[in-house]
Amino acid sequence: MKHSLFRLCGAGALVLPLSVWAAPIVEDLSAQQQSRSFYEQTEVREPGGGSLMLLNQLEENQRQIQQLRGQLEELRHQLEQMRQLNQERYIDLEERLAAVGTVGGSPSVDPGAAQQVAAAGSGNGGAQAAYQEAFQQVQARDFPSAIVAFEGFVSDYPDHDLTANGYYWLGELHSAESDLDQAAAAFQTVIDDYAASNKVPDALYKLALLRARQGQPDASRELLDALMESYPDSNAATLASEFLNQSGL
């Protein structure tokens, strides 16, 4: 019996250290978790900060765009005022010439030339009526309708004495509508195809202004010089000289 108990106790003494060594090891992971939590929070915060910077930059860009839009609107308003004043000046001129028996004259028209235009108009009632109808749209400030009417007039009467005037008004109207290429083409047609017309000096002057607006100062100066040389006594030449003095071309 004693031997049996001894063997059992001996076995127990051997088993006990084994059971102790086999026990699960518990590690303190709190420091690792805190470290991991810190880095995870840093990784979350960093993208958030970048998004905030992008948002601030976007707001700044939008503010600058708003300022530029405001400046652009102001420039457009000033340009529109200048166009209206210029258009009204020529409209008033045409109305005064119509009162003495002609329409579509130029600043340099004398009474004899006015009578010639009136006589040419009376010789072709259809053309005269079509021209006057187109010009009435100008007086009504209905520029799109006036463009259509004058385009119809120059198409139907390409060789009439008032055809050059029709092209000239197309240049004025397209310019008022900010269609500078079409305006330039109309003024150029007066210069190239109707050299005998009294509208040529005015067409040269207006085309020179258009070239200046289009950022072509050399072309503008060339046209103004040609105007003053070829038509020195015209009112358009006087305007050209004043424009050169003021613009410094």
From TrEMBL:
Its main location: periplasm. The keyword Cell cycle applies. Keywords: Cell cycle, Cell division, Coiled coil, Periplasm, Signal. InterPro entries: Bcl2_BH4, CpoB, CpoB_C, TPR-like_helical_dom_sf, TPR_rpt, YbgF_tri. PROSITE patterns: BH4_2. It holds the Pfam family TPR_6. Residues 51-96 form a coiled coil. Residues 1-22 form the signal peptide. It is found in: Periplasm. Residues 150-169 form the Apoptosis regulator Bcl-2 family BH4 domain. GO terms for biological process: FtsZ-dependent cytokinesis; protein trimerization. Transmembrane segments: none annotated. GO terms for cellular component: outer membrane-bounded periplasmic space. Belongs to the CpoB family. Mediates coordination of peptidoglycan synthesis and outer membrane constriction during cell division. This is Cell division coordinator CpoB. The lineage of its organism: Bacteria, Pseudomonadati, Pseudomonadota, Gammaproteobacteria, Oceanospirillales. The gene is cpoB.
